[in-house]
Amino acid sequence: MLEFTRQAPASTVVLEQEKEAEVVKPIPSERLLSLDVFRGITIAAMVLVNNPGNGSFVYPPLKHAAWHGWTPTDMIFPFFVFIVGVAIPLAFQRRVEQGGTQRDLYWKITRRSLLIFFISLIVLHGFPYTLEKFSHIRIPGVLQRIAVCYFVAALLFLKTTIRTQTIVAGALLLGYWAAMMLIPAPGFAAGDLSMEGSLASWIDRTLLPGHIYRPMYDPEGIFSTIPAISTCIAGVLTGRWLQQKREPLDKVAGMFGAGALCIVVGYAWNWVFPINKPLWTSSYVVFTAGMALQLLALCMWAIDLKGYKRWTKPFVIFGVNALALFVFSGLLARVMSIIPTTKLDGTKGNVQTWLYEHLFVTWLAPIDASLSFALAYVLLWLGLMTILYRRKIFIKV
Asked: Is residue 125 assigned to a domain?
């Protein structure tokens, strides 16, 4: 179930693991404001790119790459998966300090994963609730992928060492690369990475016919979720690094260095296994993990080390209620899309197009009007989330 709490977010804490399957040992640590800011920046960007006034008029950096390659928009989802991983070692310690057992943690992981999965499936993908809608409901999705990645990464964190987690992440990436390049989809050549011919695309439309985002593939499909788990594990390893007894500047420098190395490796891998978000290729995982490390390190340096905090409040407000913001903003967008109205040209439209045309198109160029609508939508939710924040209401699962 959803949990509503009026307490401020608990301080981040540390888990130490010495051996395989060993019980975790707490080491206190101070909360890093930069983590909430990173999460807030990510979810704000997600709401922005998901809600243009008109999808036909969008600036290129705010659109996904057509297939291979990347844009800033292609960084958003892996950043969110990454920060989910970072939070795992930090959040579990609170449960340990409150007297939680290993069994309690396993139950929390399972319950939270199932809730995130089905909240998205039923509340977002199932709306509006009609028999026809459910007969073709999209089963994969953003939160569904997050739920799976969180479940696997959290269990690995509890049961294995850092070394094992690193090996698993690497094995998933190498195994996915080998499968995609060496195993042909029926009717296609091995190594075909096209929308129709890739192994991942074939698996999606074979196992989930009529229940995927596009006819040929799903950008959050079954097989491509395997390397996404490595994105979450990269976050877990980063969280473990933040728990080390090192000087803050050393931690930031280490993240900058590791991030730079990942970016170089990801770009090099791109030559033989192209960076591709819909396929969540291994090169994409390494490259985006490097970018996430760089941004998180920058946030830590600016906020936690240098004390530049005046600009952070909007992103903290978003960050502490990120899941609620994603669900509610997506639900409102769907509500606006099904309420019928008339467009300026007299044709049929909906509330979303009515607001876009009457508030922005009348005085802005279409592409600027589309961006302005998206920005206004983000500001609307900033206002609503501020109300929750000031009342210290934090919605969790």
From this structure: yes
Give the per-residue pLDDT at 134: 76
Count CB atoms within 10 A of the CB of residue 275: 22
Q: What 3 state SS string does 39-82 have? A: HHHHHHHHHHHHCCCCCCCCCHHHCCCCCECCCHHHHHHHHHHH
Angstrom distance (rounded) from CA 14 to CA 11: 10
DSSP letter assigned to residue 211: -
Residues 104, 256: Cα–Cα separation, whole Å: 35
Domain match, 277 and 325 both:
no
pLDDT digits (tens, 9 = 90+) for 42-59: 999 999 999 999 999 999
CA distance linking residue 124 with residue 328, whole number of Å = 9
pLDDT tens track for 308-344: 999 999 999 999 999 999 999 999 999 999 999 988 8
pLDDT per residue as tens digits for the range 102-130: 788 888 899 999 999 999 898 888 877 76
Question: Is the Cα dihedral 95, 100, 105, 108 positive or negative?
Answer: negative
297: which residues sit within 8 A by CB, 6+ positions away?
A: 252, 255, 256, 259
Examine residue 2 and state whether it is found in any structural domain, yes or no: no
Q: Answer for the pair 212, 221: CB distance below 8 angstroms, yes or no.
A: yes
Q: Which residues have a Cβ under 8 Å from the Cβ of 142 and sit 6 or more positions away?
A: 77, 120, 220, 326
- Residue 209 burial by CB count (10 A; 0-12/13-18/19+): exposed, middle or buried? exposed
Domain hosting 337: range is 40-63+310-397
Q: What percent of the chain has pLDDT over 90?
A: 75
Over the stretch 268-294, which tens digit does the pLDDT of each residue have?
A: 999 999 999 999 999 999 999 999 999
Number of residues written out for the chain: 397
Same domain, 123 and 265: yes
Q: How far apart are CA 356 and CA 343, in angstroms?
A: 10
Count: domains in the chain: 2
Nearest-10 crossing angle of helices 76-97, 225-242: 50
**Where on the phi/psi map is residue 187: left (φ > 0), alpha (ψ -120 to 50), or beta?**
left
Q: pTM above 0.85? A: yes
